[in-house]
UniProtKB/TrEMBL annotation:
Residues in Glutamate--cysteine ligase domain copies: 10-381
Pathway(s) per entry: Sulfur metabolism; glutathione biosynthesis; glutathione from L-cysteine and L-glutamate: step 1/2
Protein name per its UniProtKB record: Glutamate--cysteine ligase
Classification via NCBIfam families: glu_cys_ligase
GO molecular function term, any single one: metal ion binding
Example GO BP: glutathione biosynthetic process
Source species: Azotobacter chroococcum NCIMB 8003
EC number: 6.3.2.2
Catalytic activity, as annotated: L-cysteine + L-glutamate + ATP = gamma-L-glutamyl-L-cysteine + ADP + phosphate + H(+)
Keyword set includes RNA-binding: no
This protein's encoding gene: gshA
Length: 527
């Protein structure tokens, strides 16, 4: 343990401060495809009974009309966050008519590219903007890649923790700058160590053969319908042969907030020649929002993001520049197909301990060679994380994966113990112990369990995923919501539809002018 981490842990462990960590905030965004009874992508519109995908706070869509996204409120206890997610999914399962939630991250067998429905959000200017943005994603990356689903874990440390640390460390920066710097430091450590999350929670070692659309690849054939890599943990987080030259040159620096926001602002303002050749419109129809490296800042694909809750009409970069970092969004988590929610309390608690460690441990700035090493370690684990004798690179030298993983888990133990003292019980220590068991026995990892299930039952990936989808649907429908909760969800769905209709009624001016104003707003961030 570093001296800095030891001091910070001791400060938070003082009797007067022990309860502070009970005020961490947790939120989950869980994506999942809607499929029909035989596991084909649903071609139906977003069900009106679920409300408006534009304005509903908890049920929306991501890329495709068939790609649902469930969003929990922020809660101080991860158990409460998971309970929120369960209620949302129970309502959705009860509402879907003859359709199911696809259980893993990698998609079901998909129709032809042109038949994958892009999400629609109505006729308001903001609704049309969201649709055109997704048309741009299809043009730039293809629709197939956009149908991969995942879990995003939102986490913040208590606001009262930052002034406590700042005073103890005699830091003279503004409170906003100190807090932002600590979150950026957390992200740097996340970059250093997130390969561990892919080993512990990666759950996509196999996929349906149709996903690759007959493109060249390096995967192996498990059966006539299934491709895989024998030691892979998360094919979802590998490149899968998809490379985008525009984003390939975009490497935001996580050494301070200003350099991060500046790099994204340049990306959403800098033309990219292949996109310029296509243009934004053809025959009067919008194809993409602009011809820049990124249409909007959220197009940048990253494993973790610094975030700040935005105001009405405010862009993410504007919020970060104006008020600093408020929380982080972890974006590299696979959906565990064995779990009805795709995630469980052990995983959530471990993520808390891991992120607390990343925030409190010393986090020097990342030199270019270390940045490349972090990326290399991450990709090595997603492709072959369970390979016996696997080595990673640490400070330019090879280190045995199992040794480094074991050391890192030991370093997390004081953080887990601190969280247990805050919340009571031994839930965090137990969650940590469960992950240590996976390092000792790779067969316990979700990726190994998926491959074992396919082999033991002689199932293809699509058959396994559909079976799990039906099992989860049955478990949710066997425990329907109480009447009061069901009515509350139905009322929220109706209210969201009314809100969308009001937005459409109030809109004025042209959509072209709206897009132009939206594009110009990025230049005002920090001005």
């Amino acid at each position: 343990m570093s001296e800095l981490l030891s001091r910070r842990l001791a400060l938070l462990g003082e009797p007067a401060n022990q309860s502070l960590l009970r005020h961490c905030l947790h939120g989950i965004e869980r994506e999942c495809l809607r499929v029909d009874a035989i596991g084909q992508l649903a071609q139906t519109p977003h069900p009106p009974a679920l409300g408006s995908a534009l304005t509903h706070a908890q049920i929306t869509t991501d890329y495709s009309e068939a790609l649902l996204e469930f969003i929990t409120p922020a809660e101080t206890d991860p158990a409460a966050t998971l309970a929120d997610l369960e209620r949302i999914q129970r309502f959705a399962c009860a509402t879907l008519d003859g359709e199911y939630l696809w259980s893993p991250s990698m998609p079901c067998p998909l129709p032809a590219e042109e038949d994958i429905p892009i999400a629609r959000y109505g006729s308001s200017h903001i609704g049309r903007l969201k649709h055109v943005y997704r048309k741009g994603l299809a043009l730039r990356y293809g629709k197939t890649m956009q149908c991969i689903a995942g879990i995003h874990y939102n986490f913040s440390l208590p606001e009262a923790l930052w002034p406590l640390l700042q005073q103890a460390e005699d830091d003279t920066r503004s409170a906003r700058d100190f807090q932002s710097e600590r979150y950026i430091a957390l992200i740097r450590n996340f970059r250093r160590y997130s390969w561990l999350l892919m080993y512990l929670f990666g759950a996509s070692p196999a996929l349906d053969k149709s996903f690759l659309r007959d493109r060249p690849h390096h995967l192996q054939e498990l059966d006539a319908e299934t491709l895989y890599l024998p030691w892979a943990t998360s094919l979802r987080m590998s490149d899968l042969g998809y490379q985008n030259n525009a984003q390939a040159g975009l490497t935001p620096c996580y050494n301070d907030l200003a350099s991060y926001t500046d790099s994204l602002r340049r990306a959403v303002s800098t033309p990219y020649a292949p996109y310029t050749e296509i243009g934004t419109r053809r025959d009067g129809e919008w194809l993409q929002l602009n011809t820049n490296v990124l249409q909007i800042e959220n197009e940048y694909y990253s494993n973790i993001r610094p975030k700040r809750v935005t105001g009405s009409g405010e862009r993410p970069i504007q919020a970060l520049v104006a008020r600093g970092v408020q929380y982080v969004e972890v974006r590299c988590l696979d959906i565990d197909p064995f779990l009805p929610l795709g995630i469980d309390l052990d995983e959530a608690r471990f993520l808390d301990a891991f992120l607390l460690f990343c925030a409190l441990e010393d986090s020097p700035c990342l030199a270019p060679d270390e940045c490349a090493g972090c990326t290399g370690n991450f990709l090595k684990v997603v492709r072959e994380g369970r390979r016996p004798g696997l080595h990673l690179q640490r400070q330019g030298k090879p280190v045995l994966f199992a040794d480094w993983a074991g050391e890192l888990l030991e370093r997390l133990q004081p953080c887990a113990e601190l969280l247990d003292r805050a919340y009571g019980g031994d839930g965090y220590a137990s969650a940590l112990h469960a992950q240590q068991a996976k390092v000792a026995n790779p067969d316990l990892t979700p990726s190994a369990r998926v491959l074992a299930a396919l082999r033991e039952r002689g199932e293809s990936f699509r058959a396994f995923a559909l079976r799990q989808s039906l099992v989860h649907a049955e478990s949710f429908r066997a425990r329907p919501l109480g009447e009061e909760e069901r009515q509350a969800f139905e009322a929220e769905a109706r209210a969201s539809l009314a809100e969308q209709a009001e937005l459409e009624r109030r809109d004025s001016g042209s959509f072209d002018d709206f897009v132009a104003a939206y594009q110009a707003s990025i230049q005002t961030a920090g001005a």
